[in-house]
Amino acid sequence: MKTYGGTLRGIRQQKGLSMQELAEGICSVSFLSKFERGDSDITLGLFTRILEKLMINLDEFLYIHNDFLTDSLEQFFKDVGTAYNERNSVELKLLREREMKKWKQLEVNTYHYNVMLIRIFEMIVNKKEIDEEVNEEDIQRLSDFFFRVEVWGYYEFMLYNATMLFLQPTMVVQLSRIAYEKSERYRQYKKVNDVIITIIMNTITYLLGPVNHFDKKLEYQAEVKEFFSYLKTLAMPESHLFERVHALQLHGAYEIKTGKQDIGIAKIQQAIQILTDLGSVRSAELIEQYLQQILEYKNKA
What we know:
By secondary structure, the chain is mainly α. It folds into 3 domains: about 5-55, lambda repressor-like DNA-binding domains (434 Repressor (Amino-terminal Domain)); about 70-165; about 170-300, no CATH class. It has helices at about 5-15, 20-25, 30-35, 45-55, 60-65, 75-85, 90-105, 110-125, 135-150, 155-165, 170-180, 190-210, 220-235, 240-255, 260-275, 280-300. Helices cover about 70% and strands about 0% of the residues. The chain is elongated. The N and C termini lie far apart (about 65 Å). Helix 1 (about 5-15) crosses helix 3 and helix 6 packs antiparallel against helix 7 (about 90-105).
């Protein structure tokens, strides 16, 4: 029979923590060892403190234990997403300072990753270069974390999706492949499937490069084709209209980048027309601007 202690041991090992590191400041190593073996019970208060050090709440723990998806960590990502969408730099700063305080108090690296995640959104809102104020040691710590964790949960997928722009292209290719592979067991759950679709699309966007580089050769053409094949495997449902239109836009951008300009323009214009017909005027305008910027730089070549 699967025990809570056994599940905890698996999570601890996947996060790369020793029993001593996890128990420090919370309980004795011997007690933690007994609980992991199923030889001792634990109070809810003590268990909550242990889970917090692992940056997992009770819902997330049960998700892993019972193999079902919950709304764990949803509030954190909702708060950050709302502040970003509203371009609220003040709120983003407050959220970052809150996570920084937790990191300093508990010395749990996951809070540091949250700080990095929020910092990306701050830089975008404040129109700074993504690599400004980013410490190479932080980037290495982040990439090491992704490679070390054996079982990715909702948090790892969301964190990677948000921090991808910190990483080098070769690293992004490797980690996006890992994310795709590790999502396989969860794809029947809508939330995880939606996140992995977004990760693959963002990977393609990242590898295609910014619009001001569309006059340059595509260095990762084989990899982009590979990730397009992943999108086909994921089989986006018909209800995912925005994602389908975005995929059409990306296909068009790929055609333009690889020299098939007329085909690419036609695909992007088709995406624009679909959104216009549906009354999504602002979204259509953004894609129109994207196309015009691509052509402006492409035609300079």
